[in-house]
Design a protein that fits this description.
The strands form five sheets. A four-stranded antiparallel sheet has the order 1-20-19-18, with no helix packed on it. With 432 residues, the chain is mainly beta. The longest helix is centred in the N-terminal third of the chain and has 28 residues.
């Protein structure tokens, strides 16, 4: 605020010389009047000083000579807006994760269990991929793997189909609609259709999945189905999007677990995929080893969502094998947020075999050290019955897939053995 300089002498009256020649009574009267006037003006000046409208020169500071051409006064700026409040801290989790505090992600503290969904009599349900309808209605769709319970947990590789269900809320209840992808004789998905992951891209729905042609792990290949409407009809590719690498390559056995993003800075589609090396998978395993081979992740890039995809020269981009003890990962879901490429997946030995992992990357090729994304079922006080003998994966959450809203995770959909029919079902977490 600009303030004016006002001399106290300008606010007081000069005493004329004629007053000094008047009678002593007038002199006395005038002196008393002048003294009262001076004191009143001094009080006014003091009030102005207290109000900040009157500035006194600093002690021992010589008067400043005004410039020849004074600069026009700068307008008084409007009061600055208060700074925006800091982003809210992650809510305190009511659950205790049994890992070192420095290894637990902030994201894990935001998870709140909702419960099981898609518990289906006579079926195992796995790989639940959710998406909101693009029409803005708020209705949601889930595409999931299922196979007859009579084939046991192993039926995923040779008896699986992909089904579609809808709900008014991410927390259900869900209503079965139809089977959108069943095995096709004579194609790469002749014996199973599994691992669905759905995306809305460029005005269409793209569902990436894995198929097998002979019911064996070595024939796993990634395919794609496309529809203009979430209910279909769906058109499937006749050839897989990727083929195994040449003999001796890190991915020369199979490819599976598709995870796709549209790159935020490039007009490209990045497809992350899990693969295995043939000689590692079929090598004699040490006694007591239950996991054969080592699962790594590669990247393939295309100018269009349906391909052709070209494998990146830096592959594999995620490889835990050098860490020893056959550490590995699978079931990746990839998304972009806050300028980073983020990946959530199932742990296979980095910490244990129950956790989910969260990794981040600035370039999509080099990822930070994994942190805990979520824990096993025992962390969340679910009050589920003891593990039955026929469910060896009981108590862990696999195939993590996000329901996204405005580019951010809103719900986490996973798959978990157990449930009402003691097979497998979806399990949902709210991201707080």
């Amino acid at each position: 605020m600009h303030t004016s300089r006002t001399s106290s002498s300008s606010r007081t009256s000069n005493i004329s010389s004629s007053s000094r020649t008047s009678s002593s009574s007038r002199t006395s009267s005038t002196s008393r009047s002048t003294r009262r006037h001076f004191l009143g003006q001094l009080a006014i000046a003091g009030g102005a000083l207290a109000a900040g409208r009157l500035k006194l020169p600093a002690a021992d500071t010589p008067p400043t000579t005004p410039p020849a051409s004074p600069t026009p006064p700068t307008p008084t700026p409007s009061p600055a807006s208060p700074p925006p409040p800091p982003p809210p801290a992650s809510p305190a989790s009511p659950f205790t994760l049994p890992y070192p505090p420095g290894d637990i992600s902030d994201f894990s503290r935001r998870l709140r269990p909702v419960g099981r969904v898609l518990e289906t009599e006579d079926y195992y349900v796995w790989c639940n991929s959710p998406i909101y309808d693009a029409d803005g209605s708020g209705r949601m769709h889930v595409y999931y793997s299922r196979w007859p319970a009579r084939h046991g947990m192993g039926g995923w590789i040779n008896r699986c189909e992909i089904a579609h269900a809808t709900a008014a809320s991410p927390e259900g209840p869900f209503e079965f609609v139809s089977v959108i992808a069943a095995p096709r004789a004579g194609h790469f998905d002749a014996t199973t259709c599994h691992n669905p992951s759905v995306h809305y891209l460029d005005g269409k729905y793209y569902l990436y999945y894995m198929g097998t042609s002979d019911g064996q792990l070595a024939s796993k290949r990634i395919g794609c189905a496309i529809a203009k409407n979430p209910a279909g009809p769906w058109t499937r590719c006749d050839e897989p999007l990727l083929h195994p690498g040449p003999p001796g390559a890190w991915d020369d056995l199979c490819n599976t677990n598709p995870a796709l993003i549209k790159h935020p800075a490039r007009n490209e589609y990045w497809l992350y995929y899990k693969a295995l090396k043939r000689d590692e998978y079929f090598a004699p395993a040490p006694k007591g080893t239950r996991i054969r081979g080592n699962r790594r992740y590669g990247l393939a890039i295309s100018a269009t969502p349906e391909g052709p995809f070209k494998k990146h020269d830096a592959n594999p981009v995620l490889d835990f094998a050098p860490l020893g003890e056959n550490k590995q990962l699978e079931d990746a879901f990839v998304w972009t947020e806050d300028g980073a490429i983020k990946l959530i997946c199932r742990d296979m030995g980095f910490y244990d075999h129950f956790a989910g992992l969260l990794l981040e990357s600035k370039d999509g090729l080099h990822f930070d050290r994994p942190k805990i994304a979520y824990g096993g079922a025992s962390v969340y006080n679910l009050n589920e019955p003891p593990a039955p003998r026929h469910l060896s994966r009981y108590g862990r959450f696999e195939r993590p897939q996000f329901l996204m809203r405005d580019g951010k995770p809103e719900y986490l959909f996973t798959a978990a053995q157990g449930g009402r029919h003691m097979t497998a079902s979806g399990f949902v977490f709210k991201v707080a």
